[in-house]
Amino acid sequence: MTRTIMLQGTGSDVGKTVLVAGLCRIAANRGLTVRPFKPQNMSNNAAVSADGGEIGRAQWLQSLAARVPSSVHMNPVLLKPQSDVGSQIVVQGKVFGQAKGRDYQALKPRLMDAVMESFSAVSAGADLVVVEGAGSPAEINLRAGDIANMGFATRAGVPVVLVGDIDRGGVIASLVGTHAILPEEDRRMITGYLINKFRGDVTLFDGGIAEIGRFTGWPCFGVVPWLRQAGRLPAEDSVVLERLAGGSGGALKVAVPVLSRIANFDDLDPLKAEPQVDLVFVRPGEPLPADAGLVVLPGSKSTIADLGDFRAAGWDRDIAMHMRRGGRVIGICGGYQMLGRRVTDPLGIEGSEREVEGLGLLDVETEMAPEKTVRNSRARSLQYDVPLEGYEIHLGRTAGPDALNPSVSIDGRPDGAVSPDGRVMGTYLHGLLSSDAYRARLLADFGIEGGGFDYRAGVDAALDGVAAELEAVLDRRWLDDLLGASD
């Protein structure tokens, strides 16, 4: 019989994703067949699963932790925000449609069947399924039709562990408050709680644990410190960018404008891991740094809207100055589309604006089209003649004179473009910078040494590190019972 556990948070960004990944790796290290599951995710950080559909990047990472192939069933409902009020809806790996927030609330009950079907597929043949909630079960105004938290847990009969983030403060109130406002049916599903992101002497919180127990009756399954290895893992959502600071003092400064609808920004993680690279995420209202040697335009869920925001921030003038100073530019996916002369959207796929002028750094044009490219790919850099491996998730077709000088070959197909002087390049390939050989050649162009480590192996080692840190602090009886060690 498959064991299941669901981690829900007292709020968003409490660290559920990393805890689920850590539990998956602990179970995998003990020889269990374990799989992650998240009924509903909201993120523009998407991945292409092994079976060829879109899932949240976090569930892809968790499948890596579990040492199993990723599947569309691990994240059956993925919401990809396109505006402040609306999202693209991906169901079991394929685009289902679009909806504004209020319309989606009415749609959720119809999606529960897909969620339960996927949960059954993930559970088949597994010893353990570790489920991640979304947001908080305390959002009782959204409880009707819920598929992400208690709506799923009660329907599937999955016990819940509540996660509280002590780093943001108010963790006692958040746990006790969640207990107070949950209806009894939901409250019964919670078996205990975890305190996450603790800094300092854990014994100082003994009184807090006693008080939480007095108000709720819930046991504490562990006080988890700030996990040192977690910083080496790809972040799930762009909310983390609000806390990232540049200024590491590396020999090469790389500037990344933070677009409103930034997507798949973990493409930049391998550069961030390079000791001689100072990766700076530039927010609206801040200029692109004049001393940057390289500017990288990341992916975007809404290229046309983000181009407007790019100009509103004055970054179009900054990047023109950057080019006059002899700088280089790389555009990935939506960032590649922005580098061209024009982006058109005759069918209104992204919104009401049908045409916008690009940055004009590449002599190409993009036309949005309804067919979405979603695939894992093997590729080769035509600039440096080194192997690449990554994935494609994009709408639109890009062509023009500079595309006759492609930047990469994807599964034998030319892709991307390079400017005549070689200082601007674009590609639809996500994962370009994960190639150690590519990074080494790119950084060598700036006169510095890089790529001297295996980035992918480093992520896997970080998952082992997270698992080891968790095993040292989680309640042993609870963990052994979860993993079946006490049977």
TrEMBL record:
> A Pfam family matched by this chain, by name?
GATase_3
Domain of life, per lineage: Bacteria
Q: Does the keyword Transferase apply?
A: no
What the entry lists under InterPro entries is as follows: Class_I_gatase-like (IPR029062), CobQ/CobB/MinD/ParA_Nub-bd_dom (IPR002586), CobQ_GATase1 (IPR033949), CobQ_N (IPR047045), CobQ_synth (IPR004459), GATase_3 (IPR011698), P-loop_NTPase (IPR027417)
Q: Give the keywords, sorted.
A: Cobalamin biosynthesis, Glutamine amidotransferase
Query: Start and end of every CobB/CobQ-like glutamine amidotransferase domain?
Result: 253-436
A Gene Ontology molecular function term for this protein is: catalytic activity
Named in its record, the pathway it takes part in is: Cofactor biosynthesis; adenosylcobalamin biosynthesis
**Which positions make up the signal peptide?**
none
Per UniProt, residues of the CobQ/CobB/MinD/ParA nucleotide binding domain are 5-237
One GO biological process term is: cobalamin biosynthetic process
So where's the catalytic machinery, residue-wise?
C333 (nucleophile), H430
Q: Which NCBIfam families match?
A: cobQ, PRK00784.1
Q: Hey, which family's this protein in?
A: Belongs to the CobB/CobQ family. CobQ subfamily.
State the function annotated in the UniProt record. Answer: Catalyzes amidations at positions B, D, E, and G on adenosylcobyrinic A,C-diamide. NH(2) groups are provided by glutamine, and one molecule of ATP is hydrogenolyzed for each amidation.
Name of this protein: Cobyric acid synthase
* Originating species: Shinella zoogloeoides
Q: What are the top taxonomic ranks of the organism?
A: Bacteria, Pseudomonadati, Pseudomonadota, Alphaproteobacteria, Hyphomicrobiales
Gene encoding this chain?
Answer: cobQ
